[in-house]
Amino acid sequence: MLEANLHTFRQLVPAIDFGVLSRDPGWTSEHYGVKSLPFPQVPSAYSHASWTWKMAEAAAASSDGSGVWTEWLGDDLIRLLQDCAGLVVSGGGNLCATWPDKILERVALLDYAQALGIPTVILSQTLGPSL
Hints:
Blueprint: H1 2-12, E1 19-22, H2 25-32, E2 35-38, H3 50-60, H4 69-82, E3 87-90, E4 95-96, H5 100-115, E5 120-123, E6 127-128
Parallel strand pairs: 1-2, 3-5, 4-6
């Protein structure tokens, strides 16, 4: 999915720069010719239990819309988001209960981007309680 997205965006906007989140930022940066950073760090105490979602939502509420997300995102990722023109969450098929931390990663990214007024899109995701 990443390779296909990079190829398509580079055809549409040849001068585009990318910031890509990765479990292996060094390899991703070298292999795809992009700036790469690690994913947000979601505390292991968070799970998909409904009380946890309510806690995360409440913790995220603040006057600027960032709340707990700033802790999870970290300074480098926040700077990357503040400088970007759009956020694309794509591939992985992991918006499901199988990987609750991945859902919260994406919620943190999307919510923070929305608070900054950055256009966001979610592509090619499997949705559901399980995969």
